[in-house]
Amino acid sequence: MAAFLGASLTVHAAAPADLTLGVKAPEKSDLQLSRGGEVNADVLAHYSAALQFESSGKLRQALEHYLAVFKADPTNADLAAHTAGIAMQFQGREAAVKILEDAVRANPRSPAPLLNLARFANTYPPEDLFEKDERPAKAVAEALAKFPMHAEVYEVAVMLHLTQNERDKAIAVMDQAANQNSRDPQFWLATGRIAERVWPLGQAEFRLEYSQRVSPFFENALKQVTKADAEQVTLEVAQQYLLTNDPERARQLCEKLAAEHNSLEARKLLYRLYGAAEQKDKALATLEQIVKQAPDDAEQRRLLANEYDKLKQPEKAIPHLEAAIQNGGGEIGDYVKLGWELYQTQKYEDMVRVGQRSVRLFPDHPLVHYQLAIGHRAREEWASSVKHFAEAEQLAGSTQTELLDHLFYYQYGVTLERMARYEDASRMLEKSITLTPREESKAAANTLNFLGYMWLEQGLHLDKAGEFITKANELLPDTPAYIDSLGWFRYKKGDYTAALKDFQRAETLLEQIQPEDAEILEHLGLTHQALGDKTKALEYLERANALNTPDLKARKRIEEALKKLKGGGKTDTEKK
Predict the structure, then answer these.
(1) What is the CATH number of the domain that holds 30?
(2) I want to staple 480 with a disulfide (CB 3.0 to 4.6 A). Which of 48, 319, 363, 509 is the partner?
């Protein structure tokens, strides 16, 4: 049920009713409102009945009671408009118009009855298409003459003329508005918005001309501001300039608001303006001020975290994502972003903690399982990692198949390899190879090399391993690790001379030997040993051992080979 009745008789469905009747009815009324109790009770009974009949769809019965209420309080413009709308359905246009005209006569000091009459008569023209009804135009003209300081009068007048294709008359109305001597900034804000309907700034070919007609209204609003409304008015004008493609003027106003009023909303607008103007430093500094000013605003925290992420500063993004989760309840995107930021800063324990909470909150979302799998993998918790990879694959299979890309299966495969589940790892890595886009040659080469080398190490599918490693070298030539793999394939096939050439080439391509390159030196040592050059073999194995590689398996293997070489025994590789 619509709430109408303004100040005279206001009733809302969910709030206590204002039972006053407002302005006294004219003396000719047969109701003596001054007697109070009995009259008020009778009118309120009618009003209550009208509400009940209307809410149950019995509009004809409701009309009878609304008419009784209107008779008691014909000054109430909203009541008159509502009653007229129902009367239109059951008594016709003239009866409805008469109600509105009675309201005009009863309340001559308000523009509302005149505007309601103008709207209604214009919306519901006479049935006879050849009958011209002058009442809308006359009502508007009278309202303009009597109430030139009411912005709503200009709005109704402009819309009346525009709907009747009388743009010249609409312009004349706005010229009248522009010539008023109002000191109310709200008047100028409202008439400025009305002016935009007459001179729409969205028409690019007339934007400059139309802007010159519209802007003065908003500038007048700025001229009339007081201390009490300066922030609100200035901000509305700034927003208006932004919407009408004058970002420079909007920026000036917002900077003034931020400096003089410490306006949070102005700073939010400034952040957008600086960003659009590619003033990245100013945008970031403004957003930092916003967060400092409103630390509990989760959305601003997210924006700031995103800015730090763009700057590759995950350590700064983390506290803001944590605050966004704490203040805003935490959306799935917050948890996922926080997880990746923690991964980038190598805070794997925290990443797992956040991931475990994400999985509890969003158990059916594959991405949180994937992220938790990555977290466990970073902590070398292989079994837990594989468990969540499997969960992610199962869930994504029916809801988010795009998650199951070549990177997913590569990560899944290398984790299975660490658990010595080589056949399962092979299936995942081969899936990764199949799914890798053609343009992702670097990723394809990496997976081909990893899978090929894994097979070599386990003595599986040697020829196919050689094919994969050869393909990796074709995709990304002159890569020391891939050339080393190719040499290891030839070593495994017993072609030590060819293998030595590959290892030597890999060594020369290394700009500076790093601990993780120890395996290349190890292979050189083993190959020299296989070719009978113990001195060279010892030299390379000692160099490999001195690098102290972080790969514990490789380190142990190098130490064992060196020990056996010095002791005159055979290495495990030679025995094979």
Answers:
(1) 1.25.40.10
(2) 509
Nearest partner of 425 among 409, 440, 436, judged by Cα: 409
| DSSP-assigned letter for residue 11 | E
Which pLDDT belongs to residue 127? 84
The range of the structural domain enclosing residue 55 comes to: 1-129
Crossing angle of helices 77-90 and 93-106, in 10° steps, is 160
**Alpha-carbon span 390 to 395, nearest angstrom:** 9
Residue 520 lies in a domain: no
Copy the structure tokens of residue 73: 């309080």
pLDDT digits over 235-273, tens only?
999 999 998 888 999 999 999 999 999 999 999 999 999
Residue 125 within a domain: yes
Give the whole-angstrom CA distance, residue 9 versus residue 14. 15
Q: How many angstroms separate the CA atoms of 433 and 448, rounded?
A: 7
Q: What is the mean pLDDT of residues 417-429?
A: 97
- According to DSSP, the β-strands at 10-12 and 15-18 are antiparallel
| Residue 504 predicted with pLDDT over 90 | yes
Q: How many domains in the chain?
A: 1
Query: Does residue 392 lie within any of the structural domains?
Result: no
pLDDT at site 52:
95
**Does residue 223 contact residue 184 with C-beta atoms inside 8 Å?**
no
Which pLDDT band, with edges at 50, 70 and 90, does 38 fall under? low
List all residues 6 or more positions away from 175 whose beta carbon is below 8 Å from its beta carbon: none
- Nearest 5°: the CA angle 188, 196, 174 is 60
Tokens found for residue 107: 């309340």
Angle at 512 between CA 510 and CA 513, to 5 degrees: 85
Residue 221, domain member (yes or no): no
Q: Hey, CA dihedral for 380, 381, 387, 392, is it positive or negative?
A: negative
Give residue 226's pLDDT band: very low, low, confident or very high (50, 70, 90).
very high
